[in-house]
Each structure stands twice: as C-alpha cells, then as structure tokens.
C-alpha cells in the first residue's frame, strides 16, 4: 500500500511518464507489489529549501510494516539517486519523511489493514 507523495519545484516535461517510472522504482525499492503503489507528483514553484528556489524536493513515504532505520537508509539512497538522475535535484536539496501509520490507521476496501491482515 505504499503511498509516495513527491513535491518538486522543477517542471517535469512528462509527469505521467515520471509517475509510472517512480511507481516501478517504489515497488522495487520498498519490496511491495506495484499493484498497491500510489504515486502523486506535484509541481510547486514556491517550494523552497535552504532559503532558495534552487531545485528541491519533499518526499513523504507512507507504508506499512517495512519502514525502519536500516531500511530507510536504503530507501533514501535509491530515491535520492532517482531525483538526481531524472530531475537533476541533488540529494542535499530535500527531505524524505518516512511514515508507518500502523495497520489500524490505514483504510482500504471499506475497512482497515488491521482487519484485512487479521483475516488472512
């Protein structure tokens, strides 16, 4: 169920293509099926970092059961490299927030993941 919410202050020539590529990377990096990955990319020309409008990003990753200190290091590296390669945004121009809300605090199919996992 990972949700990757990316905000950038650089214009993306083909947002849909980038979103699909980011979805594949998210699935591969986070070890979750792409069928459950949600990606949102927002262009925000007023996003600043370090007091400038130089290229920057803000990424929030919401995912269940796979976020921890060791794994987050790997995720941070993979996503930062992607931003550098695809958007020319250096890894020192943004933050990545890792959020695991817990199974009881994430809904899907009219219930929560706590209920879904309890049934399986």
Q: What is shown here, in short?
A:
The protein is of the alpha/beta class. It has helices at residues 15-30, 69-87, 113-119; strands spanning 3-8, 38-43, 57-62, 94-99, 107-108, 111-112. It has one domain: Macrophage Migration Inhibitory Factor, CATH 3.30.429.
Written account of the structure:
It is a single chain. The chain has 120 residues and is of the alpha/beta class. The protein has one domain: Macrophage Migration Inhibitory Factor. Helices cover 35% and strands 23% of the residues. It is built from three helices and six strands. The chain has helices at residues 15-30, 69-87, 113-119, and strands spanning 3-8, 38-43, 57-62, 94-99, 107-108, 111-112. The chain has a four-stranded mixed beta sheet, with helices on one face. Helix 2 links the parallel strand 3 (57-62) and strand 4 (94-99). Helix 1 (15-30) packs antiparallel against helix 2 (69-87). The chain starts with a strand and ends with a helix. 18% of the residues are buried. The mean pLDDT is 97.
State the helicity in percent bands. Answer: 25-40%
Quickly name the level 1 CATH class. Answer: Alpha Beta
State the low-pLDDT regions, or none.
none
Order of helices and strands: EHEEHEEEH
- The average pLDDT is 97
At the fourth CATH level, what is the homologous superfamily? Answer: Macrophage Migration Inhibitory Factor
- How many helices does DSSP assign? 3
Organism: Mycena alexandri
GO molecular function: dopachrome isomerase activity; phenylpyruvate tautomerase activity
EC number: 5.3.2.1, 5.3.3.12
Pfam families: MIF (PF01187)
